[in-house]
Amino acid sequence: MTTPTRPVLRPGTEILGFSDVGVTYPNATPALEGVDLRVGAGEFVSVLGPSGCGKSTLLGLASGLATHTDGYMQTGTDRVGYVFQDATLLPWRTVAQNVEMLAELDGIGKSERRQRAQEAIDLVGLSGFEQSLPRELSGGMKMRVSLARSMTLEPELFLFDEPFGALDEITRQRLGDELLELFAAKRFAGLFITHSVAEAVYLSTRVVVMSGRPGRIVHTIDVPFDVPRHPEVRYSADYINLVGEVSQALEEAH
Ligand code: ADP
Predict the structure, then answer these.
(1) Ligand 1, residues 24, 57, 162: which to mutate, most atoms within 8 A of Cβ?
(2) Using one digit for the tens of pLDDT, what is the confidence trace for 197-241?
(3) What is the number of the ligand 1 atom nearest to the C-alpha of 57?
């Protein structure tokens, strides 16, 4: 990946604020309760919790697709990027055409969106693959296309729903490193859902652990390692201890 340059926002600008937020679905299922969470620019927050505890609901609230039924919430931006486990590429479009797609839907003119797409493609290390079709790409490359596609809208809030869950371990770690590089350069606010404690600790500035349904935040753990973060952090005693601490918190949450 080439090193990107432009940070998006001043660090600390509040992007996402939840105060005592609850969600009860129309069928009376209580999914979230009493959630307090603030995410500022330059913060990357991972969310861990048992299946069905409301992680996707939380992401839905942040994206504006779901509505809270209790409490108060606000988002400080409408420039929101999403990356899901499924890269959702259009199979008949080339890499370049897929990356341009969101900017196209957003009404950004042809030359501007071409430029943004090329910049994003370079940023995620896919230069040379612009004319490839999705079927010619590995799983990791498809995920890079998905990331690049979101980058074209220069998100200030980036939402991730287990984006690397379907990838093999080596690809997953590599993409984690690349995502950290992007984050270090752009300092968007990140909300990252994962089932991997090690990934959560490695990528984040903060990890929150949720209880079983209705989901509440039961532990918040600040991650003290600097950003930019070096891959060697993974082998440090401090990192290993923190992974242990978070794992224990997650076990207690079940
Ligand atoms: P997670 O992502 O942590 O697995 P979800 O946010 O998907 O959890 O779901 C939280 C709870 O809300 C689950 O019990 C789920 O079955 C329920 N749920 C999710 N979406 C709906 C919906 N549209 N209507 C009713 N219940 C829902």
Answers:
(1) 57
(2) 999 999 999 999 999 999 999 999 999 999 889 889 999 999 999
(3) 6
List CB contacts of 91: < 8 A, sequence separation 6 or more. Answer: 133, 134, 135
- For the entire predicted model, the pTM comes to 0.91
Q: Is 101 exposed, middle or buried (0-12, 13-18, 19+ CB in 10 A)?
A: middle
Does the beta carbon of 50 sit less than 6 angstroms from any atom of ligand 1? no
Distance CA 42, CA 209 (A): 20
210 lines ligand 1 (CB under 6 A): no
What's the pLDDT tens digit per position in 228-240? 898 899 999 999 9
Q: How far is the CA of 29 from the centre of ligand 1 (A)?
A: 8
Between CA 32 and CA 237 the distance in angstroms is 35
* DSSP H helical ranges for 154-196: 169-186
Q: Cα 138–144–149 angle (5° rounding)? A: 130
For residue 202, what are the contacts with CB-CB under 8 A and spacing of at least 6? 176, 180, 229, 233, 234, 239
**Is the shortest distance between the CB of 25 and ligand 1 below 6 Å?**
yes
